[in-house]
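Changelog-adjacent note: as of this version, every example in the card shows the full chain rather than a window. The one below runs 346 residues end to end.
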Amino acid sequence: MCQEYQQLQKCYQGCSAYHGELHDHSNSGGTSDGKRTLAEWVEQMKGLQMDFAAILDHRQVRHMYQPEWKDGLFLSGTEPGTRITDSKASVKDMHYNILLPHRDELAKLLAEFPEYQFTGGIEGHFVYPTFTTERFGELIDAIKAHGGLFVHPHPTLIMQSDDPCDYWFRDETGIEVFYEDMASEHTVKNYQLWMALLAAGKRVWACAGCDEHADASTGALTTIYAEEKTNAAYLAHLRRGDFTCGPVGIRMCIGDTVSGGSCPFEHQKLIVAVGDFHPSAADAEHHYRVDLLDDQGVVCSKPIDCNTMMCFSVQTQNVRFYRAEVFDETRNLRIAIGSPIWNSKR
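Full-length structure tokens:
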């Protein structure tokens, strides 16, 4: 363990690793299109050792008021759709995920935008409105004001554009990179899109989501180091980009700035720790490595053990950002992506 690990521990004091899903659907009646009830989700999550799942049923809020709903187990939110009327994209349609720290915040948010035609109450429904780019940006700002996170899910599955920036609407939002699982054709396209957005100077978080409508799955997990198992604790870290897209914990800091943040890089050390593999990703017979990258490419690579916390540090250079990825070398598969720390002087 590196000497600087105590500094990293200080940044994450009182935090534990939680593994879960950020994009799923249930059978909660009404307009929900999932196949499993929340009671079935609870049992399946136990068997898969999942700490949380975001149930984001369409066009309604009732899924969050079922008897089985429990804060910290099920994240609050929904997945609407829209068409961005003035987008330059050849296909202007898209979905978007709204994740919120408290379930009642969704009704408040919908009521603020008459375009949804929200009928109100626990059984309230809403439509998929169209938005201009400007109005859609106002919606994202409102999501943030309610303590929430905006994510563009399965971006290349619906919207079509040759310009990566058509998929971007605000910094400090998420874009779904791992979709369905870490090896899907959509994941490959989404990763290329995220890389193009980083190259364009956009500060967006790489997110994961199974978009599961049937059985719970560990194909596209998220890892969060949080102070407690509550939605508010999860969202505090998700909103900052302080989480891992994937089933492995990646923590980084430069001084007291953690993943997703920005700070000056001069005369600083970057500290990286990798560990807390979810059982679905840990195989003692596989070989794993962590790559540290900047805006130009790989800075260094180090072998890691799926059963041991690994820490290292590097002297920072005058680059745009640093970020880390974990690979299962046996499967030749990228299994975890951490959010960058950006250089505030670049």
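Structural remarks: The chain has a mean pLDDT of 97.
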